[in-house]
Design goal:
The chain has 142 residues and is mostly helical. 46% of the residues lie in helices and 0% in strands. It starts with 26 loop residues before the first helix and ends with a helix. Bound molecules: zinc ion.
């Protein structure tokens, strides 16, 4: 029998390899593949979505600017913004600044969730709403 006439055996399913070969997969390539498969809108945290929406509304209402979600993210990562400021903006957008509600579930630190004015602390409260530390005078100078 001629070798080309041999019937090819059916492949065994658990030996069929789909996807990227591990030996050629770098961390960068794996990260890009995973990110390309994610539906970013679906995986976005509720608090992040809420923060983005309120930022868009704020710019439209107070400055008359129609900004997009992409613009918010890209403007935070500009090289001229120092890394510590960029990190703070990222945490603000994700509502991940450790203050206020963050301390509520730590038994010995639960009292730290409150501002001296007795409101629950949040970055918004500290920067804009609280009058305990002279924020009104500070913002009038800006
Ligand atoms: Zn306060």
């Amino acid at each position: 029998m001629n070798p080309t006439e041999w019937e090819q055996p059916e492949p065994i399913n658990h030996f069929i390899n789909e996807g990227a070969a591990l030996k050629s997969l770098s961390q960068n390539k794996a990260y890009r593949i995973i990110n390309s498969k994610k539906d970013k809108k679906q995986t976005q945290r509720f608090l992040t979505k809420s923060s983005i929406e309120s930022t868009i509304k704020y710019f439209k209402r107070n400055m008359g600017l129609a900004i997009t979600e992409d613009k918010i993210w890209t403007s935070q990562r500009k090289k001229k913004i120092p890394k510590n400021i960029s990190d703070f903006l990222w945490k603000m957008t994700h509502d991940a600044v450790k203050c206020g509600k963050f301390f509520a579930n730590i038994p010995t630190w639960a009292d730290k969730q409150f501002c001296p004015c007795q409101e629950i602390e949040s970055p918004k409260h500290i920067l804009f709403d609280c009058s305990e530390f002279g924020n009104t005078e500070l913002w009038s100078l800006v």
